[in-house]
Amino acid sequence: RKEMYEELKEQIKEHEGFVPKIYKCPLGKRTIGYGHLILDHEQFEEDKEYTKEQLELVFEKDFEMSLNDANKILEGKPVNHIARECVIELVFNIGMPRTKKFVKMLSALDREDYGEAAFQIMDSLYARQVPNRANAIATKMRGAKL
Fold first, then answer.
1. Using only C-alpha atoms, what is the Rg of the chain?
2. Is 17 left (phi over 0), alpha (psi -120 to 50) or beta?
3. Which residues contact residue 42 at a Cβ distance below 8 angstroms, ignoring those fewer than 6 apart?
4. pTM > 0.85: yes or no
5. 25-62-6-54 Cα dihedral, nearest 10 degrees
6. How would you write the pLDDT of the chain (146 residues) with one tens digit per residue?
7. Which three-class secondary structure state does DSSP give residue 21?
8. What's the gap between Cα 42 and its chain centre?
9. What digits encode the pLDDT tens for the residues 21-62?
């Protein structure tokens, strides 16, 4: 089951990039590693450089959570694995609450209308904030119907 997502993990890491110290994401939030949003209770120190191994563990935890949240969002929907991977990456990038707001995309997935789902990703504030990433996910979603 785990190996199934190795390619997706690599894709997400590529899209996120890797920074071994705390930085501010485009929305101004404290972030580290592969796009990990630092939570209040987490003890990352400013200006300290963390090892790739330490931050890989953080990534694995984040991915596992994104996978579980995406599966909850997609429960009962007839989506194939490619569309599922797109939703996992969306959840990884913007979290479950914001992904759930893609109501028209999720409704298109109920009908397995992957073209419409892709259109909805691009027709969003998300696509205006991170156009390259949104385009990569939308392109992948469009290919889900093959």
1. 15
2. left
3. none
4. yes
5. 80
6. 557 899 999 999 999 999 999 999 888 999 999 999 999 999 999 999 999 999 999 999 999 999 999 999 999 999 999 999 999 999 999 999 999 999 999 999 999 999 999 999 999 999 998 999 999 999 999 999 86
7. strand
8. 21
9. 999 988 899 999 999 999 999 999 999 999 999 999 999 999
The residues near 33 (Cβ < 8 Å, ≥ 6 apart) are: 18, 19, 20, 50, 55, 58, 59
Measured distance CA(116)–CA(30) in Å, rounded: 34
Tokens of 107: 């409704």
Residue 44, Cβ neighbours under 10 Å: how many? Answer: 18
Per the listing, tokens 């996120």 go with: 16
Residues in the chain: 146
Residue with tokens 């429960």: 75
Residue type, 18: F
Distance between CA atoms of residues 61 and 95, nearest Å:
14
